[in-house]
Design goal:
127 residues, alpha+beta, PH-domain like, 20% helix, 48% strand, ubiquitin binding
C-alpha cells in the first residue's frame, strides 16, 4: 500500500475491512505524481448531466492532488471514472449523525455524490 494512501486512511479513520481489494484496485489507477488526500470504500451515485441517467455503485473513491477517481467492480462489470480537479464546478455537502455525510461534486458532464463518515472535519477537508 502507498504511504499517502495509508496516511489518508488513518487520518480519516476509514475502515477497509472486507474492502481492501477495491482500495488496491483504485491504487493501481493512481500515478506516482499525485498525492492521495482522501480515500475510502463507499457508495457513489453518478448522474450524467445530459441524459439525467443515474447509477448507484459500490466501490472506492479517492481525492488526490490532481483529480477525483472512483472505481467499482461488480461481477464482470468494471468501471473507473476520473475527473480532473480543474473540471469541478462546485462541491456541496450535507450530513448528520444518522445518515452520515454526503459530498456532491458537480462537473459539466457528471454529478458525483458519495458517502463519507460523518464528521464535520472530514467533510470540510474533502470540500
Amino acid at each position: 500500500m502507498r504511504q499517502d494512501t495509508d496516511a489518508a486512511l488513518k487520518q480519516f479513520d476509514v475502515s477497509t475491512f472486507g474492502r481492501g481489494g477495491i482500495i488496491n484496485t483504485l491504487e493501481e489507477r493512481l500515478t506516482p505524481d499525485e498525492t492521495v488526500i482522501y480515500i475510502a470504500p463507499t457508495n457513489v451515485t453518478v448522474t450524467t448531466t445530459a441524459t439525467r441517467k443515474t447509477e448507484k455503485l459500490p466501490g472506492a473513491i479517492a481525492l488526490t492532488s490532481r483529480r477525483i477517481i472512483f472505481t467499482y467492480k461488480v461481477l464482470l462489470d468494471h468501471k473507473t471514472i476520473s475527473v480532473d480537479l480543474a473540471q469541478v464546478q462546485s462541491v456541496n455537502s450535507r450530513g448528520n449523525a444518522m445518515t452520515g455525510g454526503h459530498v456532491e461534486v458537480l462537473t459539466m458532464v457528471n454529478t458525483i455524490e458519495f458517502l463519507v463518515k460523518y464528521k464535520k472535519e472530514t467533510i470540510a477537508a474533502i470540500q
